[in-house]
Every structure is written in C-alpha cells, then in structure tokens.
Amino acid sequence: MIARDNSDADSAANAAYSTAQLAVLDLLLASAIPASGRKPAGNAVGFAAFAVQAGMQTWLAEGLDSVDALAVQQHGMALAALAPAPQQELITAARRKQFRFFGELSGLLMQCYYQHDAVLEAIGQEARPPFPQGYVVHDGDLSLLEAVYERGPIYRSTD
Fold first, then answer.
1. Given CB 3.0 to 4.6 Å as the disulfide criterion, which of 64, 99, 116, 152 pairs with 45?
2. pLDDT by residue (tens digit) across 16-70?
3. Contact 79, 19 (CB under 8 A)
C-alpha cells in the first residue's frame, strides 16, 4: 500500500504543490467523490501524497494549473475563490475540455481511494494487505460463459 496520512507524505505533498494547486485539487477531488455516510470524500484520502509517491506530481501540477487558468480566463479569479455554483459549472466545463487529464485523474483517484483504510472499512473490507491471509473468492457460475466458448474464436488466424 502507498503511505497515507503521515507527516512525511504530507510534507512531500505540500512541497510538491503550490497552495493554489492544492486548493484546486481539493475541489476537484471533493467534486469527483463527495462524502457519503461513512465513506470519506475524495479529498480526504491523501491523494496529493499518493501522486507524489507515484511520480505524477509534475503531470498533476500542470493539469491543476490549467484548470485554474480556465477559471481565471472565464471568471477573472482562481477556482478556489469562486462561489460553489460557478465552481461546479467550471469543473464540468473543464472535464469536457480536458477529458484526458480528468480521465487519468479519475483513475488515479480510484486507486488511491480504494486503498485508504477508512474506505475499505466503510465498504466492509478489512484494512489490511491481501497477503499473507488472502481474500476468499467465491465460485461463480461458469455456465454463463458457455455461449462464448461455443462461439469460437472471433479473430483472424495469422497462419
């Protein structure tokens, strides 16, 4: 698991990003995964430190700057300074314009989110590594795949 919620990881994240970048990241993550019941919001799982440890800080910083620049271009102020309604409108517009950045951000957020202890406990999993105890995989109904096997190959042979 990637380290989270510790002072070393938080220090590295704070050093890697500007205050403005961290504010934009906080808004984007909270918008992507809002808190729900016992599940924390996306901005509460140590994503900035996760991105630093994954070596994604340069890519992430550039993406955050571009989202903030869009806010300045459209509203004359930083994203964090906008009221909640214009923030959400701008985030929605930015998702359409920068779909590659937001797609990658979503994937990384899912990786980080579902490794976080609070999330694992909220979804009924033990907050532990999969080994040495492992996890039980329940048997499925393999007869459902019968049609796929009977169909045969769907590719052209290279012979």
1. 116
2. 899 999 999 999 999 999 999 999 999 999 999 999 999 999 999 999 999 999 9
3. no
Asked if 84 contacts 4 with a C-beta cutoff of 8 angstroms, the reply is no
Question: Is 48 a member of any domain?
Answer: yes
Token pair recorded at residue 52: 């630093």
Does residue 89 fall inside a structural domain? yes
At residue 148, what are phi and psi to the nearest 5 degrees?
-70, -45
Domain, as residue range, for 81:
7-127
Which pTM value belongs to this model? 0.77
At 133, list the tokens: 């105890």
Task: Let me know if residue 132 belongs to a domain.
Answer: no
Spatial separation of the C-alpha atoms in residues 73 and 78, rounded to whole Å = 9
How many folded domains does the chain comprise?
A: 1
Tokens of 130: 């999969």
Match 């509460």 to its residue by tokens. 44
CA dist 41 to 25, 34, 101, 122, 151, Å?
12, 5, 20, 12, 44
Structure tokens at 117: 């202890």
